[in-house]
Amino acid sequence: MADTEDQEKRLDAAVTSDQKKKGAKPQAAAGKKANLGKGKGKNKGDKKSNKNAATFGTTPDPNASLLAADTVTEDEENALKKDKLDKSKNEPVYLFEEEEDEGWLSDLDVTVILNRKNEQDLYLKSCKALGLVPVSYISKRLDQPELSMPYHGLGPLGAQALSKVLEVNTFINHLDLSYNCIEDGGQFLGLGLCINTTITYLNLGYNNLKSAGAQLSTMIADNSTIKTLILCGNRFGDAEASQLAEGIRQNQFLQTLDLSHNEIGDLGGIALGVGISQNEGLRELNIGWNEMRNRGITGFLNGCKDNPTLTNLNIEHNGIGSNSACLQSFLAKSSSIQKFNVA
C-alpha cells in the first residue's frame, strides 16, 4: 500500500507539472489516478462512473452507461411514435395508393381492348366455320383506321368471313379490297356493310361482283357513312345498273361513285339517270368505259342535268358518236356541273 501511495503522489506531481506547462485541465489526472487505483474503468466513454468508483472505492458497473442509453432511446422512440400518430390523424386517408396516371388504362381504353379482342375472335371463328386459314394481315389490322389489301387473293369465302367482322367493326374507315376475286362473296360484304357505321372509303373494284348487284344496292341505300365508293371493273350490266340506281336514288350521303370499266348499256344508263336525278348528295361520278350509245347517253344525261350537287362527270369511251345535241342540252341545263369529260 505504501508503494502504491508513493506512486500516486509522484504521478500527481508529474501530471500537475505537465498541465502547468501545456495548459491541460486537472481532471485528466484524476481519471488516470482512478484507473491506476482500481484498474476497473475500462470504458473510456464513462469517465463519471470511473471517477465515482475511485472516490468511494466501489467497483463501477460496466453496463450502467448502456442501460442509461437504452432508457433514453426507448423514451425517444415512444415520443417519435406519439408524434407520428398525432400527424397521421390530420392526414387524409386513401383507400388505394396513389399512382401516376401514365401507364394506367382508362375505362375507354379497356373498352377498346375488349372490342378489339371480340372482333379478332369473331374473325377467327368465322374462318374456322368456313374451313379457312385466318389471314394474319387482316387480324392484325382490325383495330386500325385503314385496311388496304389489294391483290391478296381473298376469294369469296375470305370475303364472307371478313363481312362478319365488318358488321360490328368500329375502327376501320378506309377499306380497299380491290383485285381480290371476291365474286359471290360480294353478297355477304354488301349485307355486312349495310350496318357498318365507320367506313367512309370503300374500294371493291375489279372483283367480278356481277352477282352481288342487289346486295350492293341495299348497302348504298342503307349506309349513311360511305362517302367514296369504287365499283369499277365488276362486269355490271344493265340489270345490275338498274339495281344500283335504286340505291343511289335513296342515298343522300354518297359523294363519289366510280362505275367505270363495266358493261352498262343503254337501259342501264337510262335507269342510272333516273336514280341520279333524285339524288342530292353525289358530287363526282365516273361512268366511263361502258357500253352506252346514243339512246343510253341521252337518257343518262337527261337525268343528270336535274341533280343539284353533281360537279364532276366522266362519260368517256361510251360511243356517243355524233350525238352532240344531248351534250349541249346537258351543259345548258345543268346548274352545278364544273368538270365534264367526254373524250
Explain this structure:
The chain is α/β, with parallel strands linked by helices. It contains 13 helices and eight strands. It has helices at 2-22, 27-38, 47-56, 64-90, 107-130, 136-139, 155-166, 185-192, 213-222, 238-250, 266-277, 294-304, 325-333, and strands at 146-148, 174-176, 201-203, 228-230, 256-258, 284-286, 312-314, 339-341. It has an eight-stranded parallel sheet with strand order 1-2-3-4-5-6-7-8, with no helix packed on it. Helix 12 links the parallel strand 6 and strand 7. The longest helix has 27 residues, at 64-90. The N and C termini lie far apart (140 Å).
Structural class: alpha/beta
Query: Whole-Å distance between the termini?
Result: 140 Å
**Spatial extent as radius of gyration:** 49 Å
What is the count of DSSP helices, taking H or I runs of 4+ residues?
13
Name the helix and strand elements from N-terminus to C-terminus, one letter apiece: HHHHHHEHEHEHEHEHEHEHE
Mean pLDDT: 80
% residues in beta strands: 5-15%
According to DSSP, the number of beta strands is 8
Approximate shape: elongated
**Which strand order do you get reading across the main beta sheet?**
1-2-3-4-5-6-7-8
Q: Low-confidence parts, pLDDT < 50 over ≥5 residues?
A: 24-58, 65-70, 93-102
Largest sheet: 8 strands, parallel
Q: Please estimate the helix content.
A: 40-55%
SSE map:
Layout: H1 2-22, H2 27-38, H3 47-56, H4 64-90, H5 107-130, H6 136-139, E1 146-148, H7 155-166, E2 174-176, H8 185-192, E3 201-203, H9 213-222, E4 228-230, H10 238-250, E5 256-258, H11 266-277, E6 284-286, H12 294-304, E7 312-314, H13 325-333, E8 339-341
Parallel strand pairs: 1-2, 2-3, 3-4, 4-5, 5-6, 6-7, 7-8
Helix pairs in contact: 1-2, 2-3, 5-7, 7-8, 8-9, 9-10, 10-11, 11-12, 12-13
